[in-house]
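Continuing from the previous page of notes. For each protein in this section, the sequence appears first, followed by its structure tokens. Read the first protein now.
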Amino acid sequence: MTQARRHARNALALLLSGIASKLLFLVASLIIVKKVSVGVNGDYRLALLTFGQVFAVLTEFGLRGYMVRQFARIRDNYASAQALFAETVYLRLLLFAVFFPIFQILMHALGYSSEFLSVAGWFLVYAFLDAASMGFKATLRAYERMEFDAWFSILGRGLIAAGVYLLYKNGALTLQNIALVHLSAAAVETTGLTFTVRFVTRLSPFRLPQWSAMKRVFLESLPFAVLVVVGMLYLRTGSLVLSWLRSSDDVSYLYTAAMIPEAGNFIPIAVVNALLPFLARNHGNTPLVQAYFSALMRYLGLIAAAIAVYFFWETRWIILLFSKPEYLVAETTFRWMGAWLILTFLQYAMANMLICLNQEKLVLRRYLLMLPLNIILNVVFVPKWGAAGAAAALTLSEVFCILFDVVMLHNCGIVVHIRIVLQVLGLIALGGATLYCAEPLPQWPRVLMAGALMTAFIVGTALYHDRRLISAVFARKTHDEA
């Protein structure tokens, strides 16, 4: 099997995983958005996506990124791999014991109601289990067994979607019941992954680690941890500021506008994660890394632009399709999140490329600069513009990220070619012009026409730039040059 074919197979497994799991989670989210009040939806998003995700990041402590890179390099040494696996499992449990009471005290001090604290507690446990399952998947990815990632992601998200639907059909769609459905699904997924990792890799989470080794892993993963924690705080600053200075309705507007862009993030995550083990092992081969990076930037940028076109020019259609008329007041917020979608696709590839080059401290430095900038922009924009101000702050902060990453990658010998930027802008212009000129047509023919033209543009670009790579993907014999 050629390298290109293997990478394509792994990327396809993660893409299918992302498509299915994101769609299933999106179904659950849409049921909640459409069937509960704007305020309850805001509380759900705040508990799950703000406190829950920040808690998950703190209890994960950057271990996932550290594990993927390290396991890719030591996986042939069973003793070292087993020691690292046990150390990461027990370190997660220790972090959970430390941070759970801290979060409960923090939410109480911020003045949230006792009812919200109870529900948020269940979401914190869910977030921990979900992060633990992602750690097991990271181990399987390092061994390039991406198919298990797909199966269990679909299982976990499918249980959530089915549970939420049953709650709705039985008239029991309350915030507490939604939290219990999430928790039960995560428990099933994590248990299944525990035994799968044991069967596939022979690594066991039940072997006690050495405390000195845990300390070493803790210190080595510290840059990853700070990076992920600061990055998550940066993403959730807007919702926190909205909850303090505005209302749950504004939180709901922001998260509903971000629902599709955040769901779409499975695309860069799947593609980049499929390549991470290979790139981590070949990080010293600059021409090879440059070739993969250029391909990532080109196609992630074009795919993101194709999605964002609809947020820019078909905003009302997007809102009514994925939520309900009460969210039409947030049209500007949706447009800002469309711009953010393009930037975050590119930024994810850039940040992970720096990590593959052992430059995670540069990524950390960027986040440490970006977080105060995002806080300042939110404090300035949110009181006047609400959710739209929070979305604008997030997008402008992402622009800073992109510029920083471009400079840092250039210093490492990896460049962003201007023709890729022009191709992304050209696709946006093509899609926007098509939708504008076809405005007299009914909605769906207009949308499909623009989609067909943008797809043809992407395929043509691929055939022009990467025909040899595409041939290697479908080749059956091994070619060293692939």
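Done with the first. The second protein uses the same format. Note its length before scrolling.
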Amino acid sequence: MSGYDFLKGVRVLEVAALGPSSLGGYLADMGADVVKVEDAVGDGVRYAGNPAMGSPNGESLLHLRWNRGKRSVQLDLKSDDGRTTFLQLAAKAEIVIEGMRAGILDRLGLGFEALKAVNPAIIFCSISGLGRYGPYAEMGSHGPSFDAFGALSSINPYALTKEERVKSAATPVGMHAMGLYAAIGTLSALTRARATGEGALVEVAAADCAAHWLPDVVDAALNPDQCFDRPGFLGGRGKQAHWPRLCRYECSDGRGIFFQALSPKFWDRFCAAVERPDLAALYADGRDVNEADEDVHRELVTLFATRPFADWMALFGLHDVPAGAANSRETLVTDPHFLARHNVYAVDLPGKGELRLTGTPIKTPDQEFAPALAPTAGRDQDAVLDDWLND
């Protein structure tokens, strides 16, 4: 059972492992019938990453998210029988996902051209680390390398201790962005195929996703002669003028709050709400902005520490001053806004009890998001072959 019913009736055949499994996961979340084709070993993402769920050797959270709502069959695509069955399934699918090193299905005689011969409207999405062409295309790659390529980071979070990972500001981008970009491309191609009968090869590389993530970084580097410092940003320290008015502070109960009174009208409202006209006076005409900002920051650190988070949020709501939670992982999962927006669903882990997992940021008022637990390898063999090949 998948999440929503928006893609009900869309058949997806997935040959993917690790991060590329996320594409099929997003499609399953929206209601597609995603059949995961696995070999005798199965997708390594089942036991990748930390923590393990249910027991020290249990399944991973990556697997429980990216493979939820899918069905699984096991085929040996190196054998004649396996390839024959795969082609029979592809003839009934609308989308085929190649989510391994690019070109593997071509080498097995199951690439885009071979699939078009049995299904001219097929959408073939190749999602990989480095893509189908380019100097690095034949290289192996792993998640942290995508961000290193894209000038985002060269930190491997798994090289850090558990405590260091919690404190680290490094967040993997390429590994998680590739499924989202691929979903957009795949569904766009599907829309055209349904209208025209014309299939398409869609390709997404995680390294490209990381490189495209920050337009004001890479695009600036592409146009150095056309880039100029914008008035209002301080050159020497690289800080925006009035930066303390768009900043995180700690409240008296230890919770973080993100203060957002950057614009003059919100700053004036805040100063009036806390009855501190002296704060506004720190930005007196003619005063150096750097010095004023340092003084304001010191005052705000002291001020925010005088009240708990809930009191500050109530005050800001009353006076229409932008502010929000600056959560840790621990406070996020208890944050009332996070919980009120149905970001958590429950599923039973056989023999281990209930798990509470994050759902999808895509909401609809008409449906509950409650996908089935990610399958064991080959669990749905008979049911899939019967559903797809005998309909």
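What the second structure shows: The longest helix spans residues 174-196. Residues 248 and 258 are 4 Å apart (CA to CA). We return to this in next week's lecture.
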